[in-house]
Sequence to fold (108 residues):
Amino acid sequence: MEFLVLMKLTEDGMGETADENKNILEKLIIPSIEDLLKMEKEGIVRGGFFEGQRAAAFIFSVSSGEELDDMLSSLPCSAVFGIESMPLESLADALTRDRRILEDLKKA
Fold:
């Protein structure tokens, strides 16, 4: 299954001091990007961050929504990013569905 995953930094991810921002980057953001890079090399994820923003879009290829949830919750940045996921319908499946609907409409 493929899922579109949108991530956006929350206010919790924006420190008020340089030390807070250093800790967020060092303990949450950079380790998460490293984990995502490993997943990318394994063919699990593709996508990236929007240039100049703390938001991202990814396509995850996993066996189930539960596996996706486990992966996302294991990312350290999940503590400071709002994360949304949506299952994707393949183009082939969408075409099959729409052709079936068209056939039913023609019969009516």
Strands lie at 2-9, 45-49, 55-61, 81-87. Helices lie at 18-41, 65-74, 91-107. The domain at 2-107 is CATH 3.30.70.1060 (Alpha-Beta Plaits).
